[in-house]
Amino acid sequence: MKLLSDVKKEQLKEIVNSLVKTRQEKSLTIEEIAMKTLIRPALLQALEEGRFEELPELIFVRGFIIRYGDTLGLNGNSLAEQFIKISEPSKLKQESPHVKKKIDIYIPIFLPYVVLVSFASLVLFYILDLSKKTAKISYTNYSNHQVNHNTHNLNKNILENNVPIPIYKTVVILKPLFNPNQLQITIKLQGKSWLRVIVDNKKVFEGIIDRGAQKIWKAEKRIFVRSGNAGAILLSINGEKEKILGKQGEIREFILTNKD
């Protein structure tokens, strides 16, 4: 999610804190909320801990707030309206009059998801068929949001840099074989790939890395990596044996942590 100003971030935290307080009063765990809302636990954890940079685009965060609030018996739409007031005003001022008119038109929040998912599915099938490749794409209610989010963000990179068409995979939580004082990952590129790296809750890199490059990042507590082409990534954790992060064209995230 694009970075918010400090004031807007504090306002969003107030909304999230009200959700967390109600969840705790009802003695519900994050895993129980995830099952009821179909939002991944990792995203709920990031939302509650204020790690907003790890969340998808604003439109999906609004959907999270609606489902989270409704599950707790709160008015999810009312909470989402508060979030819209936080995130939208500055953006609206920069839009042209034609765009403003479109924004004023109310569209049911789940309708665009259905349309976008259907369109993305058709485009993926057509491109894979032309290249004589087949891929089995598995969608769930929450991963559908991520497909659209990543297709939107990576579309320019795909066209300009010939990056493989992405197939989204869920977060993988990794731990070193032993519990060192410092975490370290070494990434070698077998092909071109887009990467986002967050070390101890601070974004240290985001961009496209070319084949043959090698990067090393160190952290005290936590390393988060999102790759746009997992098949191009050779990953080594704390000097352990290298392994390929995933398949060619997959979007894969992983978290390296010492925590249980």
Structural notes for this entry:
This protein is about 45% helix and about 20% strand. It has helices at about 5-25, 30-35, 40-50, 60-70, 75-85, 90-95, 95-105, 110-130, 140-160, and strands at about 165-170, 170-175, 185-190, 195-200, 200-210, 215-220, 220-225, 235, 245, 250-255. The relative contact order is 0.10. The model is unreliable at about 90-105, about 130-150, about 155-160 and about 160-170 (pLDDT under 50).
Descriptors for this entry?
434 Repressor (Amino-terminal Domain), 45% helix, 260 residues, alpha+beta, 3 domains
CATH H-level homologous superfamily name of the largest domain? lambda repressor-like DNA-binding domains
Helix content: 40-55%
Q: What letter string, H or E per element, gives the SSE order?
A: HHHHHHHHHEEEEEEEEEE
Uncertain regions: pLDDT < 50 for 5+ in a row? 90-106, 132-152, 154-159, 162-168
Topology-level CATH name of the largest domain: 434 Repressor (Amino-terminal Domain)
Tell me, what's the shape?
globular
Would you tell me the structural class of the helices and strands? alpha+beta
CATH architecture of the largest domain: Orthogonal Bundle
Beta-strand fraction estimate? 15-25%
